Amino acid sequence: MATKRVIPIGPYHPLQEEPELFKLIVEGEKVVDLEINIGYNHRGHEYISTKKTFDQVPFVVERICGICSNSHPYAYCMAVEDLMGIKPPPRAQYIRMIIAELERIHSHFLWLGLAGHFIGYNTVWMWVWRYREPVLDLFEIIVGNRNHYALPKIGGARRDIQPEDYLRIERVLDQLEEKTRMFTGAVLDDPVIRARFENVGILNQKDAIAYGVVGPIARSSGVAIDVRKDDPYDAYDQVSWDEIIATEGDILAKAKIRLLECFESIKIIRQCLKKIPAGPIEIRVDQVPAGEGIGRHEAPRGEVIHYVRGDGSNMPIRHKIRAPSFMNIAANVVAVKGCSIADAALVLAAMDPCYCCTERTAVYENGKRKMRGSELLKLSREKTERIRSGR
Amino acid sequence: MNEPTPNAEFINSIAVKFPDISVKVYSPRRVYIRIERDLAFDLARYLYREKGCRLSTATGIDTRDGFEILYHFSHDPTGVYYTVKTIVPKDDPKVRSLAVFLPAANWIEREIRELLGVEFVGHPNPAPLLTPEDWPADKYPLRRDYDAGEGSGNGD
């Protein structure tokens, strides 16, 4: 009879923005169950928000996540605007969208690079991140910082995009489009990558609905949800683009969706640059009345929700934040079951929040350490090598 | 704020099944439904099973009248966001758990339970999710009487 062993992954890794502890329960090579512990990075943001003024909160919430640091203030500002019943001026709406879509591209590139790294394709990793750099440079030009853009504010945008920068953005987009096309071909047609990604870590449609997953994870399992389409905010109803859906639910589908979404983001930004009107970028907001508001934004990882309630004072009395990964991570329990250990790191990483704290992983047997995280990563790379050499 | 909602039919069908609700259409895609605590479970199940809504998240708020629990349901085909509100009295902070039929509610309810101290009756695994292991059992950070200065469990 096979004995069950526990392989802990995590909780801390300096690379990762959200430490989690995954306990893989394995029988031999096969993962039979998963326990997830989160909370290692709980910083009490919802509590802190109630001690800050409405204007200060965007700077606090953008520090929730370093990758999608636009998504949280964006959703928060929309929640307060919903509470007040105001809309930002058109120019501000387009500026926010441009930043949001650039963020999506750099986030998807980041994921693709790390997925390459995990299966031992370090060339993919280096290349993807090299072509991600120009996006970060654009952020620096537009908002003054590579990350933490501090762009959305209640009733508008904090910074304008200078008309002379339009051309610069266009140039980066042209380059990005070409490189994304190259990666799409290189990644999706590579037989070894296909062998590692295809039919691995499947999340079927039924489970995707039951676990309420969002974003690319939901769309790769045949659940067509995207806040930008379903509940369009700002000027998302003024631009045309396609929602990318797949039904396979495996890692290949997730990779495909993220890659193809980059093309859609490029499409959206191009239209924004054409349509962006001249005019003010903010409206004056004096006082936030008593009431409640909900802001929804499609972050790179899915729907982010901010709920704000005010009592007429200058501070929110309740600020609820729900990041997309909160829903997505829980679904790992289903996706990872039945996988081999060598695939587990990849499956967990495919959800995107978890750039597996694999280097912190250890296999324990009767209290003695048998395998470390680096060895698990090695295991994953060896599997790629085996497939590559046809053994 | 009384713009016509594209989903009047949807709301009517809920009102037929649950006559005691009060509905506030804040904007075309933001709808708030207030319901008795004992019926919240049935309404949530109805929205999920019959109406195809997705439980997006839930919010717990400490108010003067009790703990308010807000279930945020998203009806993705129409993009309307339905918020089901119910009030849980402070001297009996209990409400039926949605996690028994909806795995998505599992973590959401665990989070509210440990941060606000509302018990979700029937929850399959009501263990703390976010707070550290040595967090005192009777301290709820999102209650109004909570003072972050007192023993936060970090040795201060």
Which helices and strands occur, and which strands form pairs?
The complex is a heterodimer of chains A (391) and B (156).
Chain A: E1 4-9, E2 21-27, E3 30-37, H1 45-49, H2 57-61, H3 71-84, H4 90-118, H5 122-143, E4 152-153, E5 156-157, H6 163-189, H7 191-197, H8 205-210, H9 215-220, H10 227-230, H11 251-275, E6 290-299, E7 302-311, E8 316-322, H12 324-330, H13 332-335, H14 341-350, E9 362-365, E10 368-372, H15 373-388
Antiparallel strand pairs in A: 1-2, 2-3, 4-5, 6-7, 7-8, 9-10
Helix pairs in contact in A: 4-5, 4-11, 4-14, 5-6, 6-11, 7-15, 14-15
Chain B: H1 8-17, E1 22-27, E2 30-34, H2 37-49, E3 54-63, E4 66-75, E5 80-88, E6 94-96, H3 105-116, E7 119-121
Parallel strand pairs in B: 2-5, 6-7
Antiparallel strand pairs in B: 1-2, 3-4, 4-5
From the structure above, extract its key features.
heterodimer, A: 391 residues, alpha+beta, 3-stranded antiparallel β-sheet, 15 helices, globular, B: 156 residues, alpha/beta, Beta Polymerase, domain 2, 5-stranded mixed β-sheet, two-stranded parallel sheet, 3 helices, disordered C terminus
